[in-house]
């Protein structure tokens, strides 16, 4: 067996899947070739590494950790439902009311001004001076009297 | 208790049954994830995520489906996704280091360069671990999955075929190619460590 043949068969040798005849020839080559012997040792150590890694134990509290994580996620969801969601709804309602107020103010203001400028007959009957000289407050004051 | 009974209870929100199911499978799932990731924390995170995923989707899980097959499949796929993210972050950090005139190097080559630098710096036992990790990581996705399931869990070709949803012949071929590629990769690593 040549060095090249050995290189091709290293994995099979490690996995013990060579035929008896091939195994014998493989090992005979190793006796006379240090270079191949070192290569095989390197492969053996690498495959031993898999065996060592297989012995590593998982965290014995993993189930507790997983259940705690699920619990925490559920709590976060229920905190949102119980506390944050009502707060959010209240804030949104507040905003709607506040915005509604602003809108109605604007509407009142505009409609008052429209009435103020259009319905001059009322003003004509009540007051005799020019329309430009009375203020918004004057108009209400005059009308309320 | 059989998996089917446990799953039925889990579907009724039975935490205790879920705990039993995790205890039964956590070590096997962990060893598989470790075969891909070679890192305890990352492997445990994958196992945790797989079980949380199962809990969230428990009502969609069909009782006639085999839980273990599902678990090993999802565990492998999630580990491969983590590997992809790791690879991206390695490439990203190496991109920061390389000079602008080296930007055309392909990503694989950059990882190889980074690997050989790591190998130079570490002790001999670490060489072996890194060589193994790099060799497995260098395999294409399906070869890697077949190899890890076979070597880290000693699953038979038939079991691997079920988990990977492939034919027996495909699994045989994947494992043969995985072995050949690993052999090549390890020989190259051996030669580069020993300057042959
Ligand atoms: Zn030789």
Write a brief caption for the model.
The complex is a heterodimer of chains A (145) and B (196). With 145 residues, chain A is mostly helical.
Mean pLDDT across the residues of chain A is: 81
Q: Topology as H/E string of chain B?
A: HHHHHHHHH
Helix content of chain A: over 70%
- What structural class do helix, strand and pairing data of chain B support? mainly alpha
Any overview of this molecule?
The complex is a heterodimer of chains A (145) and B (196). Chain A is mostly helical and 145 residues long. Chain A is 82% helix and 0% strand. Chain A has a domain at 3-54. Chain A is built from 6 helices and no strands. The relative contact order of chain A is 0.05. The model of chain A is unreliable at 125-131 (pLDDT under 50). Chain B is mostly helical. Chain B has 2 domains: 3-85, Rna Polymerase Sigma Factor, Chain: A, CATH 1.10.1740.10; 92-194, Winged helix-like DNA-binding domain superfamily/Winged helix DNA-binding domain (Arc Repressor Mutant, subunit A, Orthogonal Bundle), CATH 1.10.10. Chain B has helices spanning 3-11, 15-37, 40-56, 67-97, 107-121, 124-137, 141-153, 157-164, 168-193. Mean pLDDT of chain B is 87; it is low at 99-108. At the A-B interface, helix 1, helix 3 and helix 4 of A face helix 2, helix 3, helix 6 and helix 9 of B. The complex binds zinc ion (ZN). Zinc ion (ZN) is lined by residues 3, 6, 29, 33, 35-36 of chain A.
Chart the SSEs and their pairings.
The complex is a heterodimer of chains A (about 140) and B (about 200).
Chain A: H1 3-14, H2 20-32, H3 34-54, H4 62-118, H5 120-126, H6 136-144
Helix pairs in contact in A: 1-3, 2-3
Chain B: H1 3-11, H2 15-37, H3 40-56, H4 67-97, H5 107-121, H6 124-137, H7 141-153, H8 157-164, H9 168-193
Helix pairs in contact in B: 1-2, 2-3, 2-4, 2-7, 3-4, 4-5, 4-8, 5-6, 6-9, 7-9, 8-9
Bound molecules: zinc ion.
Zinc ion binds near residues 6, 29, 33, 35 and 36 of chain A.
């Amino acid at each position: 067996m040549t060095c090249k043949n050995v290189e091709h068969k290293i994995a099979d040798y490690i996995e013990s899947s060579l035929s008896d005849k091939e195994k014998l020839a493989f090992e005979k080559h190793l006796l006379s070739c240090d270079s191949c012997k070192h290569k095989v040792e390197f492969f053996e150590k690498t495959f031993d590494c898999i065996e060592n890694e297989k012995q590593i134990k998982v965290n014995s509290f993993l189930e507790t950790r997983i259940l705690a994580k699920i619990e925490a996620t559920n709590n976060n969801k229920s905190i949102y439902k119980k506390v944050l969601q009502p707060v959010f709804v209240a804030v949104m309602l507040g905003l709607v009311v506040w915005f509604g107020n602003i809108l109605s103010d604007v509407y009142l203001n505009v409609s008052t001004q429209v009435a103020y400028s259009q319905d001059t007959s009322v003003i004509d009957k009540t007051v005799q001076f020019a329309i430009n000289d009375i203020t918004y407050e004057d108009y209400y004051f005059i009308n309320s009297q | 208790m059989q998996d089917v009974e446990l799953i039925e209870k889990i579907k009724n929100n039975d935490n205790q049954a879920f705990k039993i199911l995790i205890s039964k499978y956590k070590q096997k799932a962990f060893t598989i994830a470790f075969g891909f990731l070679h890192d305890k924390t990352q492997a445990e995170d994958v196992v945790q995520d797989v079980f949380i995923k199962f809990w969230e989707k428990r009502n969609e899980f069909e009782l006639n489906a085999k839980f273990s097959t599902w678990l090993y499949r999802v565990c492998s796929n999630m580990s491969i996704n983590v590997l992809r993210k790791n690879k991206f972050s390695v490439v990203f950090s190496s991109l920061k280091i390389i000079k602008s005139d080296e930007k055309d190097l392909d990503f694989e080559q950059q990882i190889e360069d980074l690997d050989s630098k790591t190998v130079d710096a570490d002790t001999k036992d670490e060489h072996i671990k890194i060589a193994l990790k790099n060799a497995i990581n260098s395999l294409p996705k399906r070869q890697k999955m077949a190899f890890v399931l076979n070597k880290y869990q000693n699953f038979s070709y038939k079991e691997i075929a079920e988990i990977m949803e492939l034919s027996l012949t495909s699994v045989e071929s994947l494992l043969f190619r995985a072995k050949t590629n690993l052999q090549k990769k390890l020989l190259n690593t051996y030669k580069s460590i020993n300057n042959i």
